[in-house]
Structure formats: structure tokens, C-alpha cells
Write a structure and sequence with these properties.
By secondary structure, the chain is α+β, with helices and mostly antiparallel strands. It is about 25% helix and about 25% strand.
Length: about 190
């Protein structure tokens, strides 16, 4: 029997957008481009949506115009990766990023809320964010009821991490006075 080698066709961000313009991908498709592959995202459940809403409310209320809060919008990491994190805290810009999606240099904090996607987010997306220099990532794990904080990105991953549980507080490195309680992120 002869072995068959399978080759994947990887896409660029420009090709990804051309697929959308041609109607191959639709606006309501829950997909993102990760390392050239179009990845189907999991459905957003009620607990997931509530955690994203709580984070948005907390960040907007506390930060005002000191950061742009961008929920579930694209982040251009490279020509082959454009994920849609659950929440981004971005450096403010007058055009609110109308001239183009933000890139790694624009990110102050990236948050992924996880329920059924925890394994994928830890194994694939977290190392991707580290390689692209995202300074701080919070993984909100709804199943384990914890918030994982990652800082000091490198090509090999994040050099610093901590896990927080209910009763503990954490502030984004960019805004040390904004300490959020874990229960305020996870909910009751």
C-alpha cells in the first residue's frame, strides 16, 4: 500500500476576506482564521455571553476613554491569523480602528472566555498570542471557575502565569488601579 501525503491549503487574511465578499463565508458564520486555517468557533452559550457582557461593562465603566473596549472583533496578528477574541482592551485611536483592524502593538489586554473551547484556547490560541507579543492574556475558565493570567510573551509562550479563584482580584498590567474580583467576571 502506498502512503499518501496530505497537504493543507492555507489561506491569507486577504483570501479569507475575498471568500466573505464572494459569499462563501457569511457575516453570521462563527469562524476565524488561525495560522491559515478557517476554524469554526463554538456557539456562544448564555454563561459565556454573560461573562463577556460583565467584562465589557466593567472595563467601559472604569476606563472611559483611556482604552477602547472591543468585544468579539477581529485582531490582525499576521497575514495568516485573525482571531476574534472575546474582549480586547486597545490603545485608544480617534478612528476607533476604522482604518484597519488592530494588531498586536495595539493590544493592552486580550480576554478569552472559555467553556467548551478551553483545550483549544490553551493549546492553540494562547501560544499564538505569545508568539505575536500580546502583552497580557486572561483566560476566563467558566467550567473550572477561575481566571488564568498570562504575561511576558515570548516565542516559546508566556513566561509568567497565575491562576485566580473566587475571592481574589486582578488588575490588567496596563491599568493597575483596576482590580476586578473573579466573582464579578464569573458571575454568581
Amino acid at each position: 500500500m502506498m502512503a499518501v501525503e496530505v497537504t493543507r491549503r492555507l489561506f491569507t487574511v486577504d483570501e479569507y476576506y475575498r471568500m466573505a465578499a464572494a459569499g462563501i463565508l457569511h457575516e453570521d458564520d462563527r469562524v476565524e482564521l488561525i495560522e491559515g486555517e478557517i476554524v469554526q468557533m463554538t456557539a456562544i452559550g448564555a454563561r459565556h455571553a454573560a461573562a463577556v457582557t460583565r467584562l465589557n461593562w466593567a472595563f467601559i465603566s472604569a476606563l472611559g476613554q483611556r482604552a477602547t473596549v472591543s468585544p468579539q472583533n477581529p485582531l490582525r496578528l499576521s497575514q495568516r491569523s485573525e482571531p476574534q477574541p472575546d474582549v480586547l482592551l486597545l490603545k485608544p485611536r480617534d478612528d476607533f480602528y476604522a482604518a484597519g483592524h488592530p494588531g498586536p502593538a495595539d493590544v493592552l489586554l486580550l480576554v478569552e472566555v472559555m467553556d467548551s473551547s478551553a483545550g483549544y484556547d490553551r493549546a492553540v490560541k494562547l501560544p499564538l498570542y505569545a508568539r505575536h507579543g500580546i502583552p497580557e492574556v486572561w483566560l476566563v475558565d467558566l467550567e473550572q471557575e477561575r481566571v488564568e493570567v498570562y504575561r511576558e510573551p515570548s516565542a516559546e509562550g508566556y513566561r509568567s502565569s497565575m491562576t485566580l479563584r473566587r475571592g481574589e482580584r486582578q488588575a490588567p498590567a496596563a491599568f493597575p488601579a483596576l482590580a476586578l474580583a473573579v466573582e464579578d467576571i464569573l458571575g454568581a
